[in-house]
Amino acid sequence: MDEVMRVVESLQRAAKHKVATPANWKPGDPVVISPSVSNEEAKKMFPQGYEAPDLPSGKDYLRFTHVD
């Protein structure tokens, strides 16, 4: 039952916030902001901020944030 609840929460957050949840995600863990969301949109959508790790490509399409 725990896994079912985890999946339901993941799907709800993905639909509401334009994010994806990584494998083994649990509520409270960071989520990935969809690459279709521009940095300007992300700043408005996630005022608490987000983190973009340094990637070899130098691009910042992989962005992590927290949502409620």
UniProtKB/TrEMBL annotation:
Keywords associated with the record: Oxidoreductase
Keyword Disulfide bond belongs to the record: no
EC number: 1.11.1.24
InterPro entries membership: Peroxiredoxin_C, Thioredoxin-like_sf
Keyword Oxidoreductase listed: yes
GO molecular function, one term: thioredoxin-dependent peroxiredoxin activity
Domain Peroxiredoxin C-terminal: 11-48
SUPFAM superfamilies cross-referenced by the UniProt entry: Thioredoxin-like
Catalytic reactions on record: a hydroperoxide + [thioredoxin]-dithiol = an alcohol + [thioredoxin]-disulfide + H2O
The protein, known as: thioredoxin-dependent peroxiredoxin
Organism of this sequence: Linum tenue
